[in-house]
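W.,

You were right to be curious about this one. When I first looked at the sequence I had no strong expectations either way, so I just let the prediction run and decided to look at it fresh. Below is the sequence, 185 residues in total, followed by the output.
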Amino acid sequence: MHSSVALYFPGVDLDLDKILPEALETSYERVKTIATHPVASAKFFNCLIISIFKSLVLGGVLGPTKAYFGTVESQGREEDCDRTNAPTGDELSIQETERAEKEVIPVCLPTPNPAHDDFQRIFRNDVVRIVDTSNIHRHSATCYKYSKVKPDGLKTCRMRMPRALVENAHIDVSTGQITMRRSRP
């Protein structure tokens, strides 16, 4: 988190009009402050996304926008990601899209018919297969990029992997910390 605005939400006393880079804490201390205030981090994320929408989408930077749709998702690295679709006036119409779709050869097999008796089992097996093959952390050199060697000679993965398993998602009302369910380390 290099934005000084991100430090404003947890209550760090900053004059945002007169901020100098040397007046800020180290990068580690800034991230530590932000990480200990998850609600403030969410407010900063919301402020950032609203600002982007106002300037890019509503401000017309992308051209005349017909509509927009966005969704926020967790990347599993304790950070949020916003995915937004904002069609401009130059897109294909729905009819043109449907025509083009019929000409495209799919890269994967179609989803089984939900009315099929075995649909739930097939669907669940597909999801498990995808998650098992695609959503697993494998250590690489970048995991240890900023890690200092510990006394036992080991380094720490900067993605904090492996992580403790969590059976159910929950919110600690005293701190506001949100803990997501985790079935894989």
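Here's what jumped out at me. The radius of gyration is 22 Å. And, maybe more interesting for your project: Residues 38-57 form the longest helix (20 residues).

Coffee later to discuss?

I.
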